[in-house]
């Protein structure tokens, strides 16, 4: 457990004043005048309720029950109750305390309300550390809902939840590792594969200025899978056209139209070499391919179905491509009721 200190007596700073002279400041939102414990994180004091924290967290409950060494400094303003110092960023702790303490304005968080990455990350990491199980479950459920193992659902979604940045997929992978939620890993890692190598290597800055990065093993997975997924995406596109060109259509303009379309697409490297092969062909630029093309509606629909069928085959193999073993992965794709379950 990380270092913690508690005291009911507040020593002043060396200058005998405390308060601003200690470098501490009170949190304006999480400061209850009738609070029973002061929690110090970084240079921020939170005056909150000891009983509420203990009820949510057995770690806090144990912490409060044990004698602790006196803290080296506290502010003069919060001298009416015990103090606990924790080694967490005030930004993370603020998000967790807001989730478990009563809101001053009486508003309740609505079920299904959009969450930021910072909230989900704090709930998972500090919830795990302090054994606040309902916060961990909330974070994991939120991520499982988006980073689903259901092929049809995933194809209609953005790479990350609304309000996240794509690079936050690195943090999602780390949360999956921390909480042993393996079902999130294949898609979260696949999203990481779409990142520029610079962002993949450097990660991103958290609110507290620390950097979130992939562990070495997952970084190697992504670097290796990047190339493989590009090859798989290119092969799927070429196989789909090859299959359809062998299909006999009554419309005489379709075959030459498909040849021209394939040549046009081949000139666009981005359309062929895509690190992420699970695009929604109904919405992701698919219609633009056929703009001004004489190809009939039946052939267009067949091409969509064949492309999606090859996507399903890649989806089923995704854990293997990433060097993972995920029990039950791909079952929803194999049993999908979509019309993309046949490859000509």
TrEMBL record:
Per the database record, which ranges form the BTB domain? 33-104
Q: Known CDD domains for this protein?
A: BTB_POZ_ZBTB_KLHL-like (cd18186)
Q: Which residues form the signal peptide?
A: none
Q: Which domain of life is it from?
A: Eukaryota
Name the segments for region: Disordered. Answer: 1-22
InterPro entries per UniProt: BTB/POZ_dom, SKP1/BTB/POZ_sf
**Name this polypeptide is given:** BTB domain-containing protein
Q: Which organism is it from?
A: Lentinus brumalis
